[in-house]
Amino acid sequence: MTIPFYQIDAFTRELFGGNPAGVCVLERPLDDRTMLAIAAEKNLPATAFLVHGETGFGIRWFTPCGELQLCGHATLASGYVVLNVLQRDRSQVAFDAVAGRLDVQRDGDRLALDFPAMAPLREHDPELVTQAIGVAPAALWEAAGGRGMAVLAGAAQVRALRPDPSAVAALPFSALIATAPGFEGDCDFVSRYFVPKSGIAEDFVTGSAHCVLAPYWAGVLGKPKLFARQLSSRGGELWLEDRGDRVRIAGECVPFAEGTLTIR
């Protein structure tokens, strides 16, 4: 069996920036063990598996360690493959995932995701994460899926973080977002995303984290449309809009590789 495979850098305008994702286009579904083995072999932050459906494509995402319930950058990359390679005459594609229907549509040079909003729900004592990240946040929140969000005083503080991965993994959160107001005159807010429980010390650019961040910062800053940067080693740019129970997450993609995988 041969599988068309694409590697796309998502949420970036530059090659080798953003977050790399694999996209496998399948004629029929594969078993979970094979998809996990492919994701482990490619060793990318996430690999998406697409299967043609009646109204669009079914989509699932795997890291080298397991399956994801929601993944923004690999969905953006999948939208790029469908709209720029497989079906160039289309302006929008729908993906059916365990999280529900996820649309990707053209937005000029960008692609825009339509994802569920996950506004922070519960506040915690900031001291809970101070030792793990090496700085005391101004506030600590928890959102759907057990994601923690530490709000820091400034963007430079987020950039300078050197968290202890084992200490972050021991926290009662599935992942930890660090965020702060953006650099003056540059962006509305910044973030970093730490996921050691999923085998990723720090993710490069995380669309799903902005399902939490967009509603929070829209409320704090008093405006629904936002521009954000994720301050990982590769960096990422996201254009956001808070739409109540949904979040629009837009970004650009750069293709890196195209080929086939051979499964015998």
The helix fraction, in percent, is 10-25%
Query: In angstroms, what separates the terminal alpha carbons?
Result: 6 Å
Give me the CATH fold name of the largest domain. Answer: Diaminopimelate Epimerase, Chain A, domain 1
CATH class of the largest domain: Alpha Beta
CATH architecture label of the largest domain: Roll
The fourth-level CATH homologous superfamily of the largest domain is Diaminopimelate Epimerase, Chain A, domain 1
Q: How many domains comprise the coordinates?
A: 2
Compute the average pLDDT: 96
Cα radius of gyration in angstroms = 18 Å
Question: Mind sketching the topology for me?
Answer:
Blueprint: E1 2-10, E2 19-26, H1 32-42, E3 46-52, E4 57-62, E5 67-68, H2 72-86, E6 92-97, E7 100-107, E8 110-116, E9 122-124, H3 127-133, E10 139-143, E11 147-151, H4 155-160, H5 165-169, E12 175-181, E13 189-195, E14 200-203, H6 210-221, E15 225-230, E16 236-243, E17 246-251, E18 253-262
Parallel strand pairs: 2-3, 4-6, 11-12, 13-15
Antiparallel strand pairs: 1-2, 1-18, 3-4, 4-5, 6-7, 7-8, 8-17, 9-10, 10-11, 12-13, 13-14, 15-16, 16-17
Quickly list its features:
264 residues; alpha+beta; Diaminopimelate Epimerase, Chain A, domain 1; 18-stranded mixed sheet; 6 helices; 18 strands; 21% helix; globular
